[in-house]
């Protein structure tokens, strides 16, 4: 692990979807990451902003070192849940690989 868990922000126009992503990440992260739903006042807290649906994201300047990625989800709920789990697992797996290299 790095010095601290990665701090992620999830955005979706439906706050329930963003909260589900936060809950799912906490269940899978094994201490590698923590997450919160997006709010403009949290931008300085985050390391990574994940847009689950960028179509309505407000045009805001992102403070360094915050990075932004887009993870579009399928519209069908079961497929969206599967895709979200796959992406979170990949993110955590990537963190573990990088930690082994360092």
Output mean pLDDT: 94
Measured by DSSP, the beta-strand proportion falls in 15-25%
| Broad shape | globular
For the biggest β-sheet, the strand order reads: 2-1-3-4
Count of domain modules: 1
Query: Structural class of the secondary structure composition?
Result: alpha/beta
CATH superfamily: Response regulator
CATH architecture: 3-Layer(aba) Sandwich
Main beta sheet, described?
A: 4 strands, parallel
Ranges where pLDDT stays below 50 over 5 or more residues in a row are: none
Assign a percent range to the helix content.
Answer: 25-40%
The ordered H/E elements are: EHEEEH
The first-level CATH class is given as: Alpha Beta
**Count of helix runs:** 2
First and last CA, distance: 9 Å
- Rg (CA only): 13 Å
Number of strands: 4
Q: What is the third-level CATH name, the topology?
A: Rossmann fold
Briefly, what is this?
The protein is an alpha/beta fold and 102 residues long. It has helices at residues 15-28, 77-101; strands at 6-11, 33-37, 48-51, 67-70. Helix 1 (15-28) links the parallel strand 1 and strand 2.
Structure description:
The protein has two helices and four strands. The protein has 102 residues and is of the alpha/beta class. It has helices at residues 15-28, 77-101, and strands spanning 6-11, 33-37, 48-51, 67-70. It has a single domain (6-101), classed as Rossmann fold (3-Layer(aba) Sandwich), CATH 3.40.50. Strand 1 (6-11), helix 1 and strand 2 form a beta-alpha-beta unit. 18% of the residues are buried.
């Amino acid at each position: 692990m790095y010095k601290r868990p990665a701090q992620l922000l999830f955005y979706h126009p439906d706050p329930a979807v963003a909260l589900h992503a936060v809950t799912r990440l906490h269940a899978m992260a094994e201490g590698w990451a923590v997450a919160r739903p997006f709010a403009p006042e949290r931008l300085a807290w985050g390391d990574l902003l994940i847009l689950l649906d960028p179509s309505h994201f407000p045009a805001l300047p992102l403070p360094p070192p915050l990075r932004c990625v887009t993870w579009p989800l399928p519209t069908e709920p079961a497929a969206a849940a599967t895709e979200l789990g796959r992406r979170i697992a990949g993110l955590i797996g990537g963190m573990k690989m990088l930690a082994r290299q360092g």
